[in-house]
Amino acid sequence: MQAVQTPKGRLRTLAFPRLAMLSSERWLIGTHMISALFALAFGILMGPFQTFRRAPAFVEAFPDWQIPVFSYYYQALTMHGVMNALFFTTFFIVGFSYFVTQRSLQREVNQPAAWTAFALMLVGLLLLLYAIGSNQANVLYTFYPPMIAHPTFYLGLVLLVVGTWIASVLVFLAYRDWRREHPGEQVPLAVFAVTVNFIMWNIATIAVAAEILFMLLPASLGLIYITDPQFARVLFWFFGHPLVYFWLIPTYISWYTMLPKQAGGRLFSDALGRVPLSCCCSSPFRSVHTTSSRSGGEQRLEGYSDDPDAGGGSAKLY
């Protein structure tokens, strides 16, 4: 995709990039996509694991066969939710955003910083796999207190969020530089959508970062013993609802800017296409309707447990 004017004055949305961009683009974006599929593979396997372990016909046919990992329901459900809803989508969307930005603006994002962001996200993924795979983080993908996971679970989430913040800054900087070189021109719709998506994401993740850093991680480390689960739910859903739009906007980018070109047509109104994308920025403030405005009160916590019968990795409430 290339942001240049056609003879009729319209923005072309699809064009082959400069050859110098292809090699770095292939490695950077391809690595994000492979990592996304790696996380997805862990997530989707949880369904068959649970099915085989609990299906009467399978148990009768193989009475002595034991599945060695992810046998507990909450362990598998946590792995499924975290890998599919958080890591698969985030790796994919960051890589897709780099692709759209570089192809539309015909400029590379800062490569060292982009690889740094990827490294943080990858380390976060490995920490999450350790925490869940070792049966110390069976708190589901919403990780509500009073259930408390191993500290590596929360550190992994923090690294994921920080990596996306760095990625968003790189997109913002590319947008800024392009505007300086093209004063008075309208930014391509695809890049406008990517920018809106990251603005919404950055606002939403402030709340969940605060929940992790000031409530959940200190509780996991044994620094605090009392927290407010209802307030934690409010902080999570300030992030949780926008998370859905974070997934959807790349789809809208495809529908609005790629499919019309592939079908031999064009989007009937570029300006109208920007209206629903702009409205997505308000989703963090609308998302708290999913939780009650009343506080559930403070509750005392105990550290995570490895006891499978206690839902391994969950906190016990006094």
**Please, how many domains?**
1
CATH-defined superfamily: Cytochrome c oxidase-like, subunit I domain
Which CATH architecture is right? Up-down Bundle
* Portion in helices: 55-70%
The percent range for strand residues is: under 5%
Number of DSSP strand runs? 2
Read across the widest sheet, the strand sequence of neighbours is 1-2
Overall mean confidence score, pLDDT: 81
Short description:
By secondary structure, the chain is an all-alpha fold. It is built from 10 helices and 2 strands; from the N terminus they run αααααααβαααβ.
Descriptive account of the structure:
With 318 residues, the protein is mainly α. It has one domain (19-310): Cytochrome C Oxidase, Chain A, CATH 1.20.210. 65% of the residues lie in helices and 1% in strands. It contains 10 helices and 2 strands, in the order αααααααβαααβ. It has helices at residues 19-44, 46-54, 56-61, 73-105, 111-133, 151-181, 189-220, 229-262, 270-279, 283-286, and strands at 226-227, 299-300. Strands 1-2 form a two-stranded antiparallel ribbon. Helix 4 (73-105) runs antiparallel to helix 5, helix 7 (189-220) packs antiparallel against helix 8 (229-262) and helix 7 (189-220) runs parallel beside helix 9. The radius of gyration is 22 Å and the shape is globular. It starts with 18 loop residues before the first helix and ends in an 18-residue tail after the last strand. Mean pLDDT is 81; it is low at 1-12 and 302-318.
